[in-house]
Amino acid sequence: MSLTPEQTEKLLKGNFMFSLWSLSMLVTRLKGVYSSNPSPPILETCTGELNAFVTKFGKIMGNDYAIIQKL
């Protein structure tokens, strides 16, 4: 699964609860980055980081993976 910039923006503007602590920390950090500069290049950077995380840890994400897929 690969997130689009539109899905990433929904994730960064939404209020989702994740069971995987490391995903919660990543999303919190990226929300801060994106809120301080909501430009297309920053959104692309955030999308890349989230995609790298999902690629690496997708198998252990469980219900969190399902939430992201529905965006």
Head-to-tail CA distance between termini: 12 Å
Find the structural class using helix and strand composition.
mainly alpha
Average of per-residue pLDDT values: 94
**Which residue ranges are poorly predicted, with pLDDT under 50 across at least 5 consecutive positions?**
none
Biggest sheet layout: none
The rough form would be described as globular
* Topology as a string of helices (H) and strands (E): HHHH
Number of continuous helical runs = 4
| Helical content band | over 70%
Fraction in beta strands: under 5%
* Gyration radius over CA: 11 Å
The number of distinct β-strands equals 0
Domains, number: 1
Architecture overview:
This protein has 71 residues and is mainly α. The protein has one domain. 70% of the residues lie in helices and 0% in strands. It contains 4 helices and no strands. The protein has helices at 5-13, 21-36, 40-57, 63-69. Helix 2 (21-36) runs antiparallel to helix 3. The termini are close together. The mean pLDDT is 94.
Topology:
Layout (H helix, E strand, L loop, with lengths): L4 H9 L7 H16 L3 H18 L5 H7 L2
Helix pairs in contact: 2-3
What key phrases describe this protein's structure?
single chain, 71 residues, mainly alpha, 4 helices, 70% helix, globular
How would you briefly describe this protein structure?
The chain has 71 residues and is an all-alpha fold. Helix content is 70%, strand content 0%. Helix 2 packs antiparallel against helix 3 (40-57).
